């Protein structure tokens, strides 16, 4: 019984947004309501520019970009909330994509003035394809922005969602007066002086409350009534099942900075957001309520403690209880491991735990055994699906510039690749190493980390590659495969799993090649088997 109720009370989610929409601020306010921090500013003032709590590595502090994906856990109204932080910077999009394999739902933050931005579009698309339940928070209502109805249209068109508002703003910017809570059918007035604390707010039970006119005036009261009529006429009625299946997305309005609309969001979220969901494996679907432990590695974080060369593998628990000091099988290696000090998180703060439940994230100390995507079980040989590599966007040769440190360089490259910082390809023709990344910034991250963590020096050399495609040979009676290998030998490489990869130098070449060799299959992600 205890096991089932532990699963029931877990909510594991990610917050995604375009940089600057207010993800960090919202995260912080959620922590504030959860009592995990006492005062606003604890996370925010730690944001990279100012030296960080949720960003560990020195390089992040230097650059002012959130490189790390950390886990923030707290209890709110007896629900165990796990927020998986996702880097907003586009160069670290792959890290975010991987984190999305470990969440059970997401909250999308949109800036009321900027509307739907590029990075939001990409991330939401991934969520939509996976039918992850999505909840939208429109932020910065204290500023002038787009009309609420217009913005909801934009969300529907640009993000391909079907929305229905569960809260609605009264005015915005200078005229922002408060939020009507459609979900609870009450209303809360805005007091701009509440930035730092969670305070009592003036609440009204009904829109017909005579005091309302006194507070927001006749004009805004009339407008609100009209807006609510329009909403009930135009938008579908909220239905939890449709939200959970990814067919309907509730929208909330507020101002994270001003603590406004956040509690409405959180209170509704804990009611409707999914508890840990089942997950597909290569053999069968695994349900959280199964009594045997299974989980998978979605992130590896290196060297959080500069004094030790330690790596922390982040595991999402899919089913069963995870227990300290019990041997678990890493299916890829067919090898059992025991963990004497598994960690739970609060940003940089870790604590050793004895037991964790489905939905939770545990951090396991790793001396270089794990790779992103590894499955851990009590013995069953299954592999969780859903952590493919996508084609990188940038490709460069990596050259060793200190011949005395070749070993360190190789070790460093291998470990960074296991962490998923970038992808490594080895050219068939000359065994040269090519590093592929999502953003150009990663090359600097790699160079910095190789030097500071492994004492190895390297430089990069440009390589003209448009896309990497994984190639598989279908049953063919002709010699197409041999011909393809001969003609394209300069452009063929192996990835870390020894799979054949075609590095096409242009979109044109890629299309020509696909047409020319119809019996071969070209894939844009590494997980095609
Ligand atoms: P991010 O994690 O999505 O990148 O965004 P972040 O929370 O850091 O917020 C980006 C900027 O937007 C911050 O201002 C933050 O204070 C501001 N902001 C967040 N929520 C609101 C809101 O509801 N209303 C208004 N007016 N501003 C909001 P900054 O100047 O970049 O940082 P700071 O100097 O305020 O810390």
Which helices and strands appear, and what pairs or packs with what?
Blueprint: H1 2-8, E1 10-17, H2 23-33, H3 58-63, E2 71-76, E3 79-84, H4 93-100, E4 105-111, H5 118-129, E5 134-139, H6 148-159, E6 163-165, E7 167-170, E8 178-181, E9 186-189, E10 203-204, H7 210-234, H8 240-244, E11 249-253, H9 262-272, E12 279-280, E13 285-286, E14 294-302, E15 311-319, E16 322-323, E17 328-330, E18 335-337, E19 343-346, E20 349-352, E21 355-356, E22 361-366, E23 375-377, E24 394-400, H10 406-419, E25 423-427, E26 433-437, H11 441-454, E27 458-462, E28 467-473, H12 480-487, E29 492-494, E30 500-504, H13 507-516, E31 520-523
Parallel strand pairs: 1-3, 1-4, 4-5, 5-11, 6-11
Antiparallel strand pairs: 2-3, 7-8, 8-9, 9-10, 12-13, 14-15, 14-23, 15-22, 16-21, 17-18, 17-23, 19-20, 24-26, 24-27, 25-26, 25-29, 28-30, 28-31, 29-30
Helix pairs in contact: 10-11
Guanosine-5',3'-tetraphosphate binds at residues 17, 19-25, 44, 47, 88, 139-140, 142-143, 255-258.
């Amino acid at each position: 019984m205890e096991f089932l109720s532990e699963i029931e009370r877990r909510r594991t989610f990610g917050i995604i947004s375009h940089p600057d929409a207010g993800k960090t601020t919202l995260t912080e306010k959620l922590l504030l309501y959860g009592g995990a921090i006492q005062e606003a500013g604890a996370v925010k003032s730690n944001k990279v520019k100012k030296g960080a709590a949720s960003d560990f590595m020195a390089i992040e502090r230097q650059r002012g970009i959130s490189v790390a994906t950390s886990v923030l856990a707290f209890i709110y109204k007896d629900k165990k909330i796990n927020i998986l932080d996702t880097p907003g910077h586009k160069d670290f999009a792959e890290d975010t994509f991987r984190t999305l394999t470990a969440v059970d739902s997401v909250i999308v933050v949109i800036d009321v003035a900027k509307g739907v931005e590029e990075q939001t579009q990409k991330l939401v698309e991934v969520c939509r394809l996976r039918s992850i339940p999505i909840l939208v928070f429109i932020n910065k209502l204290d500023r002038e922005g787009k009309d609420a109805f217009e913005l909801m249209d934009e969300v529907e068109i640009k993000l391909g969602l079907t929305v229905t508002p569960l809260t609605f703003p009264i005015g915005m910017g200078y005229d922002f007066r408060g939020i009507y809570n459609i979900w609870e059918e009450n209303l809360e007035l805005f007091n701009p002086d509440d930035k730092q604390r969670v305070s009592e707010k003036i609440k009204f039970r009904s829109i017909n409350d005579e005091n309302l006119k006194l507070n927001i005036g006749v004009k805004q009261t009339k407008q609100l009534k009209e807006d609510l009529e329009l909403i009930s006429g135009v938008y579908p009625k909220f239905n939890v099942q449709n939200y959970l299946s990814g067919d309907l997305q509730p929208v909330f309005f507020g101002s994270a900075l001003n603590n406004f609309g956040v509690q409405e969001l959180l209170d509704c979220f804990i009611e409707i957001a999914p508890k840990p969901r089942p997950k597909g494996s290569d053999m069968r679907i695994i349900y959280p309520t199964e009594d045997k432990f299974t989980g998978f590695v979605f992130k590896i974080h290196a060297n959080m403690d500069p004094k030790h060369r330690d790596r922390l593998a982040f595991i999402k628990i899919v089913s069963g209880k995870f227990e300290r000091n019990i041997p678990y099988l890493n299916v890829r290696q067919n090898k059992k491991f025991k963990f004497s000090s598994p960690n739970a998180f609060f940003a940089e703060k870790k604590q050793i735990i004895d037991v964790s439940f489905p939905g939770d994230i545990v951090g396991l100390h790793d001396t270089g055994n794990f790779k992103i995507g590894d499955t851990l079980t009590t013995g069953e040989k299954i592999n969780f699906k859903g952590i493919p590599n996508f084609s990188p966007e940038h490709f460069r040769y990596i050259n060793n510039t200190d011949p005395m440190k070749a070993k360190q360089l190789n070790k460093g490259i291998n470990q960074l690749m296991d962490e998923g910082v970038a992808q490594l390809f080895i050219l068939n023709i000359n065994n040269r190493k090519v590093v592929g990344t999502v953003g150009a910034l990663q090359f600097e991250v790699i160079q910095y980390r190789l030097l500071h963590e492994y004492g190895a020096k390297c430089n990069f050399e440009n390589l003209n590659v448009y896309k990497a495609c994984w190639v598989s040979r279908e049953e063919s009676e002709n010699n197409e495969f041999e011909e393809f290998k001969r003609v394209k030998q300069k452009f063929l490489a192996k990835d870390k799993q020894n799979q054949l990869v075609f590095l096409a130098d242009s979109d044109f070449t890629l299309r020509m090649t696909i047409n020319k060799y119809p019996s071969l299959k070209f894939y844009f992600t590494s997980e095609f088997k």
